[in-house]
């Protein structure tokens, strides 16, 4: 399979450079690259836009699956069936090196070990648009935005009144229902969406065949007021209550009790003021996350994450082609979690096992976006982030976009970025036994470890891209080379007795992204193709005794060398659209666990096929079919965790 991929890829490269190429100048407006609306044709960063039509037409229930299918250079893994942890990696970096925003609210769990975000609870129905911004974005979006950022925009109300209902039922006793209502006038608009998703599920791990169920109850609402032509107030609320069963890692465990009850809540208040050349916004964002878990032994543990953020963003437009974006951010994170890493041998009291923790980050930034010549567009940005524990760190970026003509573009970006230690790193980093430095409670951690011992990670990256369109073939093409280098990486695993610390190695990920979209004129079919080659290196792992072959012994965990996704769309009959999806993932390295004495493993490559169909039975109703893994491939995305076998879902949705 690898040889076939390389041959196909080489042929495509030859084809590109021995033909005159042009790109279609599509008037697509994006927001995330510069925190202000701009034409995609002038952006120097790599951006993937998943629009509302694509999301609506997808028969997937969860947004993470849609992003996985529609965005190249993203690698998705899930630890079991619905409801289990779903992570998305950008450009060959672990998920903690990218950030996620929903309506401008930063999404992560401060009480999680790496303060990253999982996608398993985001249903697709309330989502209007997604922009995946690849490459180092720390100068605009702060710490962790080294691999890129994922921006999710939810639906808003429109003048008039509408209702929408969707129902799906399928394999594993899966049932889903969604209802929304929206409306408004020239002064006020509103949107309310409610979902309920239930499934008996599959076993989270492949050492047993019992079912692990999942339930998701969600609410999304927005209420916007236009006070006058210059002033607007936006309110957005998102609530999710998700309960699921999971399996303990140890195969000898009895998994009857393993379950988690999760609550996610975010609220955003935004004030928008436009006056002449100035556009300013001030927002207050609140995040609340609660995880209540019951383990195999029946032990009950609580995890709480909190975030309050104040954000000011301003734009001054010198003219149509030159502007400066500037801003101030203040982010306050707090967490409470049980002492699962507390050394029990010390005889501490319960107060030390359930300890509050907090941190803050104050940030200032600017981004100058300019057009020095008719065909050249550029940005220069700088940022400073001051962390309460590890001090101030700068970051910056430079991007360029050169329009060869109205049908083609060269682009490039260079950036530096940072990642601060998480609360979990700072407060529970020193091990869980006396031998690893447990000892007496010290206020900010454990004896033998000081907060000042942990420093921020640093990163540098660059990429070059070319977008073009072949007139004669009706073919869009996008190709890019990327390189990301990480210094001072934080690491904690069994090799250093689970003690967190900065290491001296340099990690990297580099590779090639290729995207093709063929939509012949006056035809009822089209083909999308995305291929990514990634060469990654993790200096923290596989110190000694590593037995992995194929050059994967020091690759980053769960980062495949080769992946491709292809989707074939065809309007078979009037009102009926079918899609056939092919996905290939090369072999990947993964950590071992207690079942194999923590020996690293190599997960096999795999290929899956899916099919979906949408049929308009009347003016307002569609029948849907979604088939996943139709040839019933047996594969793993995480070591010993199950993946969905052949499943079918049937649905009915009301369209308007």
Radius of gyration, taken over Cα atoms and rounded to an integer in Å = 25 Å
Classified by CATH, the class is: Mainly Beta
Q: How many individual domains?
A: 1
Classify the secondary structure makeup into a structural class: mainly beta
CATH superfamily: TonB-dependent receptor, beta-barrel domain
Give the arrangement of secondary structure elements:
Layout: H1 2-17, E1 29-30, E2 38-39, E3 46-50, H2 52-57, H3 63-70, E4 74-78, E5 86-90, E6 98-102, E7 105-106, E8 127-134, H4 138-141, E9 148-154, E10 160-170, E11 174-184, E12 188-199, E13 214-226, E14 231-245, E15 259-275, E16 278-294, E17 300-317, E18 323-337, H5 350-353, E19 355-370, E20 376-387, E21 391-405, E22 408-419, H6 423-427, E23 457-470, E24 475-487, E25 490-491, E26 501-502, E27 506-518, E28 525-537, E29 562-573, E30 576-585, E31 588-590, E32 601-603, E33 606-616, E34 621-628, E35 647-654
Structure description:
The protein has 656 residues and is mainly beta. It has one domain (21-371, 383-534, 553-654): TonB-dependent receptor, beta-barrel domain (Maltoporin, Chain A), CATH 2.40.170.20. The chain is built from six helices and 35 strands.
Question: What would you say about this model in short?
Answer:
Helices cover 7% and strands 51% of the residues.
Defining traits:
single chain, 656 residues, mainly beta, Maltoporin, Chain A, 22-stranded antiparallel β-barrel, 6 helices, globular, disordered N terminus
